[in-house]
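Much of our argument rests on the idea that a fold can be written as discrete symbols. The record that follows shows the chain in one-letter code together with its fold in token form.
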Amino acid sequence: MTDVVLLAVLLAAIAIGYGLGRWQSHRTRSTASPPSNTELSQEYFVGLNHLLNEQPDQAIETFVNVLEVNSETVDTHIALGKLFRSRGEADKAVGIHQNLLARPALAPHKNEQIQLELARDFMVLGLYDRAQRLLTQLLETSRDDSHRQTGKALLVDLLEREGEWQAAIDVTLGTLKRHPEMRRPTAHWFCELAEEDRRQASRAMAKRHLRKALQLDADCVRATLLLAELAMEDGHYTRAIEQLGHVPDQDSEHIPTLLPLLKRAYLLNDDEPGLRRHLEQLLARAPYTSTIVLLGETVHHQEGIDTAIEVVGEQLNRAPSLGGIDYLVDLYVESQQLAGRATDTRLLLLKRHTQALLDQRPRHRCRRCGFTIERLQWQCPSCRDWGTIKPITGIEGE
């Protein structure tokens, strides 16, 4: 058991002791039954004994059993429920919170607070349908603005987890002025709808959803990339290139992300010189490894390997990177092979080292929580934020 959890249990015990003291004082004034007080005190000290012996489960069970639910102790019960949930025992938290809701004498404010905690319990247990019913009912009946806002946030989180994108949008749209931080997630939900439309061959609806995404978040790279892909599928390669030209202004860190589609659009448009000029413009803005590599491949195809080596070498002088060196070694090896010379073993050794180092590293990282992953995902699996995973500079070209 960690010190943090032990401290939490101890604080809960202190709160319970305080609640018991007040409850017993009230009982002493209202009835002459000292044996009951003595019994309660004994139970309380039994709980403390469990706590001091590092038996937190027995301690909490003792406190819950001895503490009567009333207006003075309800906060302590709620705290104990939260403690169970934080310890990974959400089923016990459900028991505590459901027991509280069974008390009709509780004030409406407390009743709603308990409903929110019970919804959190259900979500932790994966009982999304029960949590959704509880939250929907609370939003229909609550007059407490803070509870309504909390309930909406929980409901949106639940709907997002379930992939109910339109329902999440419906809940959120009316709150964007008050919560502008939700514009980016909502834009991605529209992108999710567009992806579904695309799979169902509803291209017009997909484009409509993507335009709504960009209205909400003008910097939504994902929406721009999807519009470019749709233009490509329609055979409008010049339009796709124009769409991709917006990405560096939206988020220059996603320049590596747009390159495969950019290359395909230019080649299908039979405009390899245009691709080279576009890559040179991107490198003037941000010298990413993947851009250097693609420029090297383009020059190689147009003017031969020696010119490619020269161009890549110049770019790496400006912005050295592991991925760039790995590609340059490939060019040197190929150059020797084309010249009919035996490959320098030192180059092969260097290639093994650079490749091994690259193989050990992920290609993308979440800028919010640091989570690393090989392939790009638009929602971080760790912190669940949207649009925060981006290529890692220097190895993104591999």
